[in-house]
Amino acid sequence: MSTASRLLMSALSLLALMLVWQVAAWWAASPLLPGPAAVLAAMMRAAEGGALQRNIAITLARVAASFIIAMLLGSAIGIALGRSPRLNELLGPWVIVLLNLPALVIIILCYVWFGLTEAAAITAVSINKIPNVAVTMREGAAALSRDLDEMARVYRLGRWKLLRHVTLPQLVPFFTASARSGLALTWKIVLVVELLGRSNGVGFELQTAFQMFDVALVLAYALAFTAVVQLIEIGLLQPWERRVNRWRR
Amino acid sequence: MSAIGIHIMGKQFPARAGAPAREIFRDFRLDVAAGEFLVLLGASGLGKTTLLNIIAGLDAEYRGAIRFAGAPPRIAYAFQSPRLLPWRTVLENVALVLPSGTEGQEAARAMLADVGLAELADAYPERLSLGQQRRVALARAFVMRPDLLLMDEPFVSLDTASARRLRDLLRRLIIQHPATVLFVTHDSREAAALASRIVRLEGTPVHIARDVRVELGVTERGSPARLQAFLSDAGLAEPEALSGGA
């Protein structure tokens, strides 16, 4: 299927979803299930004063900060564990414990210990994500090719060349996988963190709308934010993936 | 140019997955003269690759010593599989072993032209045939001007015509860039076609069963019948070859 026809199919499918939603809204005829038009109107209202844009920007900044921290620290930990079996025996169980700790517990503990601050919020989201990244990267680091490593040793490639041309390219698929699942996980947790202890951002606005039972505003924020995340995926993540994978047949 | 003194007092494969420990080398000695094209001939699984890995410095778990005359040689290694970086272009793979910079790029490009792959410089290795990938591996080995070239069955699993073309290429490259070569194979005809000296290895632990100089001209090396005659005379012919495939 060509790109154009695939896009057309996606558009038709989304249109059908809108139709189902509209019919359900008519049938329910309640402010608790507003139709697409009502949600669009709520979205316009929120965008008029700039509140929608500002809150999405704030949330995105938090997502970006915690995502970058988690990817860096998680990759470093994962690679170290994957390269050293002894370190893995020592610290592997910690990763498992952290992996299974509910996100909510980490958020509450961070707020209790560090106060209702920006740093606590970012830390909480990063800690939630780090073990996922570490586990994926550990798998990649443990599966590094011995053959290529020997080649690099015989030809006396320096440390930098080894890292840049031999090691990192082997880790790219694992890095992409954890970045992909990472973005989805991070923005969901950021909303919870905002709901529990911040006074701005999409999560905070959702809570306010929830208290007013303003379902149209909840849906307006949810849809606007989802659209932005989709744009990042299509505009940033996918082109990058294509670039690093261009050598594959 | 390097002369090599190999003395392995002991090398074992540890017991693994039910197989008992195996002693591959015990008091094994081999001296290689500078500029020699030495073929190590022997059955698969004998320990030939292990020997190359010890000389290359990849395997340090042995007792004994590898001595090089003079300064440590620049070593290139053509492995049994090409071992190219699939995510780098052909040109980048060859330039990898040179210092970064335009000079290295130029040298790599010239070497690729030398092995007949100039127009594939910007392709990725997985798009190449196995024969072409082996050419890239050869270019990578020669571009660094090695003193010592280790080759581990570098032409295995190619069809006869491709393998012959690659042998011709290798002979030409050696003339252009003289080096001491240690070439491992289980194919006695390949050995006779290339070597200036053939060492036949046998047994566990490995010992030298035969050590033969090869003084054949270019035309003789190109003739299968002449090679077969040489192998019979030298006592290197394989039993199946002697019986004429009957």
TrEMBL record, chain A:
Gene3D superfamilies in alphabetical order: MetI-like
Topological relation to the membrane, as annotated = Multi-pass membrane protein
Domain (ABC transmembrane type-1) ranges: 56-238
Segments traversing the membrane: 57-82, 94-114, 215-240
Record keywords, A-Z:
Cell membrane, Membrane, Transmembrane, Transmembrane helix, Transport
Q: Which family does it belong to?
A: Belongs to the binding-protein-dependent transport system permease family.
PANTHER family, per the entry: ALIPHATIC SULFONATES TRANSPORT PERMEASE PROTEIN SSUC-RELATED, ALKANE SULFONATE ABC TRANSPORTER-RELATED, MEMBRANE SUBUNIT
User: What is the official name of this protein in its record?
Assistant: NitT/TauT family transport system permease protein
Q: Which organism is it from?
A: Ancylobacter amanitiformis
From TrEMBL, chain B:
Say which domain of life the source belongs to: Bacteria
Q: What is this protein called?
A: NitT/TauT family transport system ATP-binding protein
InterPro entries in the record: AAA+_ATPase, ABC_transporter-like_ATP-bd, ABC_transporter-like_CS, ABC_transporter_ATP-bind, P-loop_NTPase
Query: SUPFAM superfamilies annotated for this entry?
Result: P-loop containing nucleoside triphosphate hydrolases
Task: Report the PROSITE patterns cross-referenced here.
Answer: ABC_TRANSPORTER_1, ABC_TRANSPORTER_2
Say if the entry is tagged with keyword Nucleotide-binding: yes
Which UniProt keywords are present, listed alphabetically?
Answer: ATP-binding, Nucleotide-binding, Transport
Pfam families registered for this protein in UniProt: ABC_tran
- Gene3D superfamilies (alphabetical): P-loop containing nucleotide triphosphate hydrolases
The family line of this record is: Belongs to the ABC transporter superfamily.
Q: Where is the ABC transporter domain?
A: 6-228
Task: Determine if Manganese is one of this entry's keywords.
Answer: no
- TM spans (from-to): none
This entry's Gene Ontology molecular function terms read: ATP binding
Taxonomy, top ranks, is: Bacteria, Pseudomonadati, Pseudomonadota, Alphaproteobacteria, Hyphomicrobiales
